[in-house]
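Protocol step 4 of 6.
Sequence for Restriction endonuclease (Rhizobium changzhiense) entered exactly as in the expression construct, tag removed. Do not edit the line below.
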Amino acid sequence: MTEVEYDRLVELSMETMMKTGFHWFQHQFITVPHHLFAASILRACASIDRAAPNIGMDLLRELSSIGGRDRHEPHYEQLLQKLSEILVIERIVSASWPVGTTFEHEPSAIPGGPRPELLVTTPTDRLVVEVKTPSLLQHIRNRAENRTHLPYRGGLSSELAGASAEGGVTLPRDNPILDFLKDAERKFAGFRADPDTASLLVIVWDDHIYEPISTLVNQGTGLLTPNSFAKRPDGQALTFPNIDSVVAIRHMHYFIAASRDEWMDGRAHAMDFGIDGDVPNVSFDLANGRSLLQPVLERLRAMPHDDPGLKNFAEYNPQDVVFWVPHSNSQR
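Step 5 output, structure tokens:
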């Protein structure tokens, strides 16, 4: 990234935020020059622009315009969603693609149709990508306050869980995941008219990766199993034929920590995706995989959720119930 490119992005972000009014990140982008948090986002957007001109600028402009109400928490959660889009899009567009590959941000298969995040078109095939991030802030507070956590529905009842331990019960965030699957299925439908189009839904979660894993593949009610709690009118499990693969990324806690200037557990900055050997992300194959997906899954550092190497780690397996034991300093 040249100094001119960087300065252009700095100017864009500052100018947009000044027009927006209150912005959760105005301290990092305006008050403190060259703040590491802002710099990591600017570098990621510049990296996107090098591979896909103007997409990084568009994403930065969108990020800088989310605000206007003093400490309005829904805006902070929208910013986490936009950071997730920047993170995932940068990983994908900066991969080693063949000559002639093009990228389109928020494409539409038909005029006025639904728009997923990204369309990658190579000389031989295509990949359509959707990025989703749940609203987790209240859920994170609940996990910190309650002793018992139910990662998925249909296992231990909330009444029994509440009776089995002191403190409240944190319920699963499974409805947002179902909504993500439904929305991706809808957005991908028009693109699947081309048989050479693969599709990928990326869900950015925090460090409690067992939550989306439990919701998606627990054998009692998992959304990607025949016993799914989501049913069609005929009583059969709801399926998602337009989705080839789902990836769950454990990264939201890094965004939150970086935005608060807190310790990041080994990551250098908000957009640090980690290296081989770091805790992996996980993938779920809905259609026996397509060749175009494999290099993207590797770029996202995603291992199959049922990889034998993950079986010995509780956080990578569906959990029926989690009991939190407070430390002596009252932190969990």
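Step 6, annotate. Strands lie at 102-105, 118-121, 126-132, 148-149, 169-170, 197-205, 245-250, 281-285, 302-304, 322-323.
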